[in-house]
Amino acid sequence: MIALQTVVALMVAQAAPPALMAGINDTQQRDAAYEELSQGETDAAIARLEANLVENPDDPALLINLGSAWAVRGDKEKAADYYRAAASSDVRYRLELADGEWVDSRAAARLALRALEQTAVAMN
Predict the structure, then answer these.
(1) Which Gene3D superfamilies does the record associate with it (predicted)?
(2) Most buried of 4, 7, 46, 88, CB within 10 angstroms?
(3) Could you tell me the CATH number of the domain that includes residue 81?
(4) DSSP state of 12
C-alpha cells in the first residue's frame, strides 16, 4: 500500500528544479508546486496549483498534485475528484514517479486514487 505522503511525492522533476514538473518531452515543464508539497506547505501548494490550473485546467500534473494536497488536508472527496479529473483528462503525458519509473499521467492518477481509496478503507 502506498502512503499518502508517497502519493504527494509521486511527481518529481526530470532534470529541472524541484518545483517544475517533467512533461511529455524535455522542453515541456509545469510548475506543479512540488517544492511546497514536499516541504509540507500544503496551503501554499494549493494556492499555487489553483492559480496554475486557471491557465491549464486539464493539466494532469496540476490535477494530481492538487488532489494530493487536498488528501493531506484530509478532504478525501476533493482529492478523489482531482485524481479522477486527471485520469480522464484529454491532456496526457509521461510523468516520472518517485522511484524513477515513467508512466502515463492517467496511470499516475489512477495509482493516486487507488492509494487514497486504500487509505480510506484502512481507516474504517
Answers:
(1) Tetratricopeptide repeat domain
(2) 7
(3) 1.25.40.10
(4) B
